[in-house]
Amino acid sequence: MEPFRFHLFVCTQQKPEGVASCPASGSLAVLDALDREMHARGLSSDVQLTTCGCMGLCDEGPVMVVYPAGVWYRRVQPADVSEIVGTHLHDGKSVDRLVWNDAHAMKAMSVEHGEKFRAAMAARDEAGMLPDRLEQMIRGYMPSRCILTALELDIFTAVGDGASAERIGTRIHASARAVGMLLNALVALGLLSKSGDIYRNTSESARFFVQGSKDNHRNGLLHTANIWHRWSTLTDAVRSGTRVPIDRDTAPEWTQNFIAGMQRIAKDRAPLVVKALGTAGVRRILDLGGGSGAYSIAFAKACPDVQCEILDLPEVVPLTAEYVSKAGVSAQVSLRPGDMLLDDFGSSYDIIMLNAICHMFSEEQNRNVFRRAHQALAPNGRLVVQDFILNPDKTVPNHAALFSLNMLVATDAGASYSELEYTDWMKDAGFSEVCRINLPGPSGLIVGLVK
Ligand SMILES: C[S@@+](CC[C@H](N)C(=O)[O-])C[C@H]1O[C@@H](n2cnc3c(N)ncnc32)[C@H](O)[C@@H]1O
Ligand code: FES
Question: What pTM did the predictor assign?
Answer without folding.
Answer: 0.86
